[in-house]
Design a protein that fits this description.
The structure is a single chain. The chain is α+β, with helices and mostly antiparallel strands. Helices cover about 25% and strands about 20% of the residues. A four-stranded antiparallel β-sheet has the order 3-4-6-5, covered by helices on one side. It has a two-stranded antiparallel ribbon with strand order 1-2. Strand 3 (about 85-95) and strand 4 (about 95-100) form a beta hairpin.
Length: about 170
């Protein structure tokens, strides 16, 4: 193996080791974080966008994946959907998908994640002329909210692939 190549496993192991050293170091500070800082990242190219709905490059994922959570996740071994920001989902009918959001989730600025924020995100994906995920969510006719943590996706036609679509940029 070339030492110029840093595999994900080696990166994670190195990061964990550095974290353990920092934690056990007698010089480690117990002070709380001071707030905003600077995150420096080295990439071979810039992402086309930091907006998951308008990114145009497949390599954007390496930047977007650690920044954003998805509504629904998936089990890598089986590709079965699993909870993400939506703790559960169910089809009330073949054309009505109901998402129940996790409570006590906040954005980086402390604003609460709620059904209105998710509805606004769908409006952005469906209405932005630069959206590259519009086709992924094209079966969504309308998005409504039932309460603070419930989002209802009204579909134009049945779409059982939608939960896994929501595990990616959409």
């Amino acid at each position: 193996m070339s030492w110029n190549y840093l595999s994900r496993r080696r990166f994670l192991a190195s990061t964990a080791a550095m974290g353990a050293l920092a934690y056990t170091s007698p010089h480690a500070s117990a002070a709380q974080p001071e707030g905003r800082g600077i995150l420096k990242v080295s990439l071979s190219s810039n992402p086309s966008s930091l907006d998951p709905a308008t990114g145009r490059s497949g390599t954007d994922h390496i930047v977007l994946w650690p920044i954003y959570d998805t509504l629904i996740g998936f089990e890598p071994a089986t590709l079965e959907p699993r909870p993400g920001l939506a703790e559960s989902w169910q089809y009330r009918s073949p054309t009505t998908l109901v998402l129940k959001l996790k409570d006590n989730v906040t954005f980086h600025d402390g604003t609460a994640l709620d059904a209105d924020a998710v509805k606004a995100n769908f409006a952005h994906m469906l209405g932005n002329p630069r959206s590259t995920v519009k086709a992924d969510v094209a079966t969504i006719k309308e998005v409504t909210t039932e309460d603070r943590l419930t989002v209802i996706l009204h579909l134009k036609e049945p779409d059982t692939s939608l939960p896994l679509v929501l595990s990616d940029r959409a």
